[in-house]
Design brief:
Blueprint: E1 4-5, E2 13-16, H1 35-40, E3 55-61, E4 67-76, E5 79-82, E6 94-98, E7 111-119, E8 126-130, E9 152-157, E10 171-177, E11 186-191, E12 195-197, E13 204-209, E14 212-224, E15 230-231, E16 233-238, H2 244-250
Parallel strand pairs: 1-12
Antiparallel strand pairs: 2-14, 3-4, 3-6, 4-5, 5-8, 6-7, 7-8, 9-10, 9-13, 10-11, 11-16, 12-15, 13-14, 14-16
Amino acid sequence: MRRVFAAALAAWGVASGCTGRGGTSAADGAGSVHYCRDAALAPGRAGLASEVEAAVAVMGFGPDGDSFLCSGVVVGPTKVLTARHCLDDREDWEVLVFFGADAAGDLDPESVGVAERALHPTRDLAVVTLEEPTDVTPVAWTGAESIGAGASVLGVGYGAPVGEATRCLRAEASGTSAAYARGAPTLDVRLGDDLLCEGDSGGPLLVERGDELFVAGVLATSLRPEGEECSAQVTFAALSADDAWTVATIGPPGD
């Protein structure tokens, strides 16, 4: 079974962005497409769904018919944490959050609109406020400074190479964290056989403490060869207890 780790890829070298190849929203009329509607037509989607219900898909639809796919994580009854670059320069876009393991199959009944957006001034972090509360249990956050070098971490997202059957299906994979300097804006993660793929930007970096998962950052950038959509090296925008914006926007850390 192929496992896809959370990240998004856009260009050679260090790349950020989850816009990928856009399309028009299915709501725009017959014959129109977007990421998850396309993916729903592909076979072989069973068996990859993660059980981390707080991981969500974040999609936007522009006035000119463009669309983007990112990932995110529920951190409060009406709050979803994602990557800032997913929302940059998209003030006039409609942004929706999709719940469920399969964002293609559950698109219509599981979508919730976004009422407000808060963008971090310096880090690749953003929080969107849902138009109505969700009953999904939020994930508490911890500072990246609490993760030691070589620690096992987990990423969750909805990305995959464009056109593959696993796109928009929530999946997870493990990696190993690099050393983190307290207060730094990012944290690097190295994967083994798992890959980071386009569409997973904003997906959570999760660390396990006992029986509980905490989010310590979101997928921001990756390093990949030219022509490739996936990579084993990724950088997360870090959550930090020393960062005033994070504490003010999400609340104090849960550990």
